[in-house]
Amino acid sequence: MQSRSAKFGLGEIVKHRIYDFQGVIYDVDPVFANTDEWLASIPEDVRPDKNQPFYHLLAENSEIEYIAYVSEQNLLLVEDAKPLRHPQINEHFVGFHEGVYLPYDSVSH
């Protein structure tokens, strides 16, 4: 598999193209790095291709907060993003500025 550059970066708030949730990116895999069983659990008509970046999100919808693993093809950048309520945000980010979360400096973590 050949990897390509990620379209989105750490701290950006994105929303799912199909499902009603959004989240902040806290990690990126250049290509699919989950199990084949996980991929097979996605309905075939919406199952993403493995050869693209996948994003780890601190995700939330109107009811709950959770961790999501989403392909680049299924994400859209949230314009004028507001802070999220996910309880793990402070574990990965130091603050929020102009619609983007600011990651801790990798040297100090």
Helices and strands, in order, run as EEHEEEHEE
Q: Percentage of helical residues? A: under 10%
- Between the first and last Cα atoms, what is the distance in angstroms? 31 Å
* Average pLDDT figure: 92
Unreliable parts: none
Short description:
With 109 residues, the chain is mainly beta. It is 8% helix and 35% strand.
Map the helices and strands.
Layout: E1 13-16, E2 22-29, H1 36-40, E3 54-60, E4 65-71, E5 75-77, H2 89-92, E6 93-97, E7 100-103
Antiparallel strand pairs: 1-2, 1-5, 2-3, 3-4, 6-7
Q: What descriptors fit this protein?
A:
single chain; 109 residues; mainly beta; 5-stranded antiparallel β-sheet; two-stranded antiparallel ribbon; 2 helices; 8% helix
Give your account of this protein's structure.
The longest helix has 5 residues, at 36-40. The strands form two sheets. The protein has a five-stranded antiparallel sheet with strand order 4-3-2-1-5, with no helix packed on it. Strands 6-7 form a two-stranded antiparallel sheet. It has one domain (13-103). The protein has helices at residues 36-40, 89-92, and strands at residues 13-16, 22-29, 54-60, 65-71, 75-77, 93-97, 100-103. The protein is 8% helix and 35% strand. It is mainly beta and 109 residues long. Strand 3 and strand 4 (65-71) form a beta hairpin.
